[in-house]
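We emphasize that the prediction below concerns an isolated chain of 513 residues; any contacts that depend on oligomerization or on bound cofactors are therefore not represented. The input was used exactly as deposited, without trimming of termini.
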Amino acid sequence: MLRHIATIGGWTMASRILGFARDMLIAAKLGAGPIADAFFVALKLPNLFRRLFGEGAFNAAFIPAFTQAYTRQGVAAAQQLAERLGMLLALWLSVLVVLGMVFMPQVLAVLAPGFPARGEAQFALAVELTRICFPYLFFICLAALMSGVLNGMGRFSAAAAAPVFFNLLAMAALLWLTPFVATPAHALSWGVTVSGAVQLGIVWFAAARAGVPVLPRAPRIGPEEATVLRRMLPGVLGAGVTQLNLAVDMMIASLMPVGALSLLYYADRVAQLPLGVIGAAIGTALLPALAGHLSAGKTLSAHRAMNRALEITLALALPAALALMVLALPIITVLFQRGAFTAGNAADAAVVLVAYASGLPAFIAVKALAPGFFARGDTRTPVYIGLFCVALNLGLNLAFLWWTALGAPGIALATSFAAWVNAAALAWMLRRRRLWRADRRLRRAAPRILAAALGMAAVLGGAIFVLPVGTGFMGAAALAVICALGAGAYAAAVHFSGGLHLGATWRALRRRA
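Result of the prediction step, given as a token string:
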């Protein structure tokens, strides 16, 4: 599992680095104004549905069923299950995309209620851009199914590498297509849709090479398909709580002054680096591992896998969160402060980043805890917890909207608080049902990891006073030196305190299966 986490995390890191390059181009071309707000709404909508119906709910229900069919009945049975569900998913997505394209003005009036009040021109631009981006939903949800097939067979590289092409094609469209369309935002929107088709082609080809070429098959709802669909329905909320909370953020931010949506986007992109590299990698690798252990009746191995996943979560998420909080302004300055993105925009986005970073360990812990339910076919419990957290987030957002001094940081703070409640409730429910409890190794490591992370934060705080960070190449070089100092300080502290034995971890990564 640790090797799989490293594989997924490595490819996700490459994708995130390219994503920063893409966002730097967007910040320079669009800044934090009305056109940027319109594009970020257009991008948010298909991504929301992708996480709910594709990577989130569908994979939470599909991967355990596929893994069970693959291990117990063989490749042919697993392939038939994937083909029938793939056709059902394609039909459902086709209807959703067509309805979304037709009723896009009404959809945006609900999800971005503040846009109509900003003027007819900006609302019309947001509708047009969203219609261009929306077919991306069809391609990327089918790509999520193919990724689930690969993950269920223990193959993670192709599915983790495919998102790299999203960033490459978005940058290519921004650089070369912009002169031929109305605005840079139009070019970006076309790049998003094309990248979805390319990602689907990559993972389909990888599955075919692995011996499971998922081909069109007449849809039929048998017992296995019915089980997946039944588990998927509650999982739409259970696996997508974070995305629903971000959708609530978008709704509230659209009611704020121009630029609030853009500030939330830029800050969230930075917070998404550790969330994607650590959280997505752990959740993706843990679910098939747990499903395999439970299918084989190895309950103790399932408990051990959960504890090691949470240990990795703490060891990586705590220092990442504290580093982002201490270095928020230098990071935003180096990444985005150029062109249309001003120093004032950087200062405002840095405050939002601190608020998002405060919830980062909880966001990642949810990725490690939710598979404990999904691997057992329980998608209902995360739903009930998720519904409560969505309601809590909405209530806090409305409260902070009235308290106008908080602005966009208040939205991020509400989302982070809801994430902590979500993680705590999942952990409590798992322990109450005797599905997980912290073993001695995890209880011993947790306080040592926290102490090492706090020591690293102190080192970083002193370093930014000694070595101020500005814009341009020198600013990037100074930030790189500070990050290297912090990483070295944390590695030494966590190793010598016994929180994480780096030598044993390295040997586990190198060990052949």
